[in-house]
Write a structure and sequence with these properties.
Shape: globular
Helix content: 10-25%
Order of helices and strands: EHHEEEEHE
Largest sheet: 6 strands, antiparallel
Radius of gyration: 14 Å
Number of domains: 1
């Protein structure tokens, strides 16, 4: 039986991020807008950018969800740890190396761990 590919997922963990970048709703929106343009994904609806988890320093921060016509981009950001956890999933192929490099540079991260998965 031939394996069918459903989609492509890039999982990115960033460390030592610029705190101004991960704690700004405007910068997070800019990231999503530029990323979608860069990897040629069409946004579906508005970007969700809630800020929550404020009862504890290590849980507070933004999360983002951007539906795209071929799936979604999600992210979770910790101001306390200066980390970002981003997933880019699409059933349409995209340049994951370009997405990884852009994401690393955009958040001015000191370190990155990334994995590309074909599902």
């Amino acid at each position: 039986m031939k394996k069918r590919i459903f989609g492509y997922e890039l999982v990115i963990d960033l460390y030592g991020c610029d705190k101004k970048m991960i704690s700004s709703k405007e910068k997070l929106q800019e990231y999503v807008d530029k990323l979608c343009k860069l990897i040629k994904m069409k946004k579906y609806g508005k970007t969700l950018l809630p800020y929550f988890g404020e009862k504890k320093n290590f849980t507070k921060g933004y999360s983002l969800v951007q539906l795209i016509e071929t799936s979604s981009i999600t992210g979770h950001f910790s101001e306390f740890w200066r980390t970002a956890y981003i997933n880019i999933f699409s059933c349409k192929k995209y340049n994951y190396e370009l997405a990884k490099k852009f994401t690393h540079q955009f958040f001015k991260a000191n370190g990155i761990k990334a994995k590309f998965i074909i599902r």
